[in-house]
Amino acid sequence: MQAILSSIERVGNKLPHPFILFVILAGLVVIVSTLLASLGIYAVNPQTDAEVHVRALLSGDGIEYMLTNMVSNFVNFPPLGLILVVMFGIGLADKVGLMSTLMQVSVAKAPSSLLTFCVFLAGICGSIASDANYLILIPLAAMVYYSVGRHPIAGAAAAYAAAGAGFDASLFITVGDALFAGISTDAARLVDADAYVSPLDNYYFVACSVFVLAIIGTLIVDKVVEPRLKRTLPMGKDFNTDIETHELTEAEKLGLKRVGLATLAYVILVCIAVYPDASPLRNEEGGLIPSPFLEALVPLMFGYFVLIGLVYGLTTGKITSSRDVPQRMAEAARELAPTLVLFFAISQFIAYFRWSELGQFIAIEGSNILQSTGFTGLPLVGAFIIMSAFLNIFMTSGSAQWALMAPVFVPMLMLVDFDPAFVQAMFRIGDSSTNIISPMSPYFSVALVYMQRYKPDMGLGTLIATMLPLALGFLVIWTAFLMFWLAMGWPIGPGIYMMAGS
């Protein structure tokens, strides 16, 4: 195990920062497109029979495109606006303390018999709070486990698994939904200029996945992880910990009640707006799939989080003047700075891929190989998930990994009739499951530090051995659940199936 860990860490450390990686990839696109164009390489689109010729970026037209479109490539990058708007809303609710309070209530007040299940529900759904999910839930779960006579490291492991391995499942629409949908849309437009992937397109599947993963995680922690920890890391009575409990104030309790009422009122208003057949939020036939309602999901989500953030902040005194609102939003936006820098490099890479026709060329040739070998259907689904999970060990940034994979695999699988939103759903399983066993994850060491509060001599190997059953369990069961979902013929989101023509 130590040898495997060392190899992963050694390979991962040799990878450049994602920004530099995409700069290098953009340069490779420039070179490869010029080489293939000089050789007259082309492919035939099987859907239109049109010839797709690779265009050289190191040509007069290519150089002009790169210089004159650098800003527009970035500004028009689909995930950019989505993630900013969503983060403004969620960030306000987070910065006034609502997210952390919800996590504390959901775990600390859980019945002992349902403790592990509640930790998983809170952790999986807590991805909406981003980094706070790890920083609050892991020590909180460890403390609660110890307070009821259970192994605290098992609680920390459950919280880490829920937050990391279940990151891409949620009962709520998250920043990740908007981010992945934007990247998928950009990639899908390499072969279909009108393609659009909504943040809601995976919702049915990922929302149901929450309960499947919570059940599986509970069984693994209670039946495998905790019994093993009791044998290998028995807890003594003489250790010290500096974890402090936090009792909710009366203002925080009142704030949560008002948030509940505000949520109910908001849902009722949205239902009233959508219900009439003549509603402008419905399509011309009076339906909801597709409709302006689905396209307006991000603004509606922004409005909801602003509402509950205001309600909670005003009640608890975290918001005392109108100036506090934009200030809290700005605080959240500042945390996006590294993401925006990364987006600049990603947007250029994808734009070069599209303009040069290199993306479409690779997609066509790749789809021809898949069809000629007969490697499609469920075997392809399983192979894609495993590949995503393996790559995720070395590149734990979901946005960077999807930006790398999507321009190649989304168009390729679209040409064998896979829906781009379904390709994204497959990726999300692999992207989540192996987060908790990767030393490259920024939260790997965070989880270890929290666990060392109870066992100061605990090492990386012990952490990996503790988390591996959970990572493999999530990967296998979540993949099997997707296969079951497909066998039942259910949509993974509003009007979205595995095959685009379904």
Explained architecture:
This protein has one domain (2-234, 245-488). It has helices at 2-14, 18-38, 60-68, 70-75, 78-95, 98-108, 115-125, 131-147, 152-164, 175-188, 203-232, 250-274, 292-295, 297-316, 324-334, 337-355, 358-373, 377-394, 398-414, 420-433, 444-452, 460-488; strands at 42-44, 51-53. Strand 1 and strand 2 form a beta hairpin. The protein is globular and about 70 Å long. Helix 7 runs antiparallel to helix 8. Residues 239-243 have low confidence and may be disordered. Helices cover 69% and strands 1% of the residues. Strands 1-2 form a two-stranded antiparallel sheet. The chain starts with a helix and ends in a 14-residue tail after the last helix. It is an all-alpha fold and 502 residues long. It has 22 helices and two strands.
How would you sum up this structure in a few lines?
This protein is an all-alpha fold. 69% of the residues lie in helices and 1% in strands.
Break the fold down into its secondary structure elements and pairings:
Blueprint: H1 2-14, H2 18-38, E1 42-44, E2 51-53, H3 60-68, H4 70-75, H5 78-95, H6 98-108, H7 115-125, H8 131-147, H9 152-164, H10 175-188, H11 203-232, H12 250-274, H13 292-295, H14 297-316, H15 324-334, H16 337-355, H17 358-373, H18 377-394, H19 398-414, H20 420-433, H21 444-452, H22 460-488
Antiparallel strand pairs: 1-2
Helix pairs in contact: 2-16, 5-10, 5-14, 5-15, 6-8, 7-8, 7-9, 7-11, 8-9, 8-21, 9-11, 10-19, 11-22, 12-14, 16-19, 17-19, 18-20, 19-20, 20-22
